[in-house]
Amino acid sequence: MPHRKVTAIIRSDALEKVESRLQEFGVRGISVSRVKGYGEYANFYARDWLTSHARIEIFTAAEHAEQIVAAIIDAAHVGQAGDGIVAILPVEKLYRIRSRAEAFAGEI
Questions:
Q1: CA distance readout (Å), 38 to 44, 49, 73, 88
Q2: Where are residues bearing O-UMP-tyrosine located in the sequence (predicted)?
Q3: pTM for this predicted structure
Q4: Pairing of strands 95-96, 84-91
Q5: Rounded to whole angstroms, how far apart are CA atoms 11 and 94?
Q6: How many CA atoms lie within 13 A of 52 on its CB side?
Q7: Which CATH architecture has domain 3-107?
Q8: Which range, of 1-5, 44-48, 50-54, 63-67, averages the lowest pLDDT?
Q9: What is the DSSP string of 24-60?
């Protein structure tokens, strides 16, 4: 079964709501990073235009990716510029460092 990587860049203040929604959905693991950047929304009052956001990365089975994206969008949506973006990327292989073995879709 193929894997997918779901990457979302969202407003920092939406992070708790998104995390809760993903836990309710049964997502078994996420990585969260604080990031800075600009796109559709730029902070024109800052010297470098950058705004702070949260980046969420999730590795999942392909059949769950769209449902995870829907949960993120539903929880993070405010309806304003800067709400964020979500991408689904193919993953060729995934390995667990602990076991030194390839991880399969039912294990993640």
A1: 10, 7, 19, 20
A2: 45
A3: 0.86
A4: unpaired
A5: 28
A6: 6
A7: 2-Layer Sandwich (3.30)
A8: 44-48
A9: HHT----EEEEEEE-SSS--TTSTT--EEEEEEEEEE
